[in-house]
Amino acid sequence: MGFSFFPRSVKFFKLFQEQNNKLIKAAGHLCGLFEDTADTEELCKQVNIIESEGNIISRTIARELSMTFITPIDREDIHDINVAQEDILNAIKAVSTRLEVYEPARVRYPAKRLVLNIQGMVEASGAMLERLSANTKADKHMENIRWLKYESETLLLVGIGELYDCERHDYESILEIVKWSHIYDRIESAVDRLDALGDILEGVMLKNA
User: Who has greater pLDDT, 199 or 139?
Assistant: First the structure.
């Protein structure tokens, strides 16, 4: 099918919501990974499957955008939302992969709280997408994303400080510090990308108000 100069009924908002639903599922599995009795191998497998499914949706959005002349919102905004959600899914996968590969001795409490914040930010971004499609305000959801971002920054400082505040300095302790430093780094990346998605959605809403 070639490029069309005529309006096409491409439901970009529906595709965005499908993409966000994948994020919600992946974030739920990520929270499960940070439970003490987690089936790490199975949950990581599910995250990988969801990431692959999300990539298909992302490619579908990109393809439809390239073949559609008239779009419900600016083309660059559709592109930015698509890329942002794909990046978040990749970031969630990166966290789960690090946890599976490194197999830390125990799951740390700040990390548990952080992945719950990731889940909350994903859900808030999904609510913003629903408001965007209905052209209604989503101030409280953006405020929620900002609050969770702020709380996550504090939790990261606490978590990293906890790593280095240990009396033991043997090989196992140092290795654990290295493992968790990498895991926290990936968690921080996921939080930052979710914050960026919130900014993108807020900008689109203001532009189309």
Answer: 199
DSSP string covering the chain, please?
---BSS-----HHHHHHHHHHHHHHHHHHHHHHTSTT--HHHHHHHHHHHHHHHHHHHHHHHHHHHTBSS-SS-HHHHHHHHHHHHHHHHHHHHHHHHHHHH--SS--HHHHHHHHHHHHHHHHHHHHHHHHHHT---HHHHHHHHHHHHHHHHHHHHHHHHHH--S--SHHHHHHHHHHHHHHHHHHHHHHHHHHHHHHHHHHHHHT-
* Side chain identity, residue 66: S
Please return the burial class of 187, using the count of CB atoms within 10 Å of its CB with bins 0-12, 13-18 and 19+.
buried
pLDDT in tens, 142-156: 999 999 999 999 999
pTM of the model as a whole: 0.92
Q: Which residues pair with 4 in a beta bridge?
A: 68
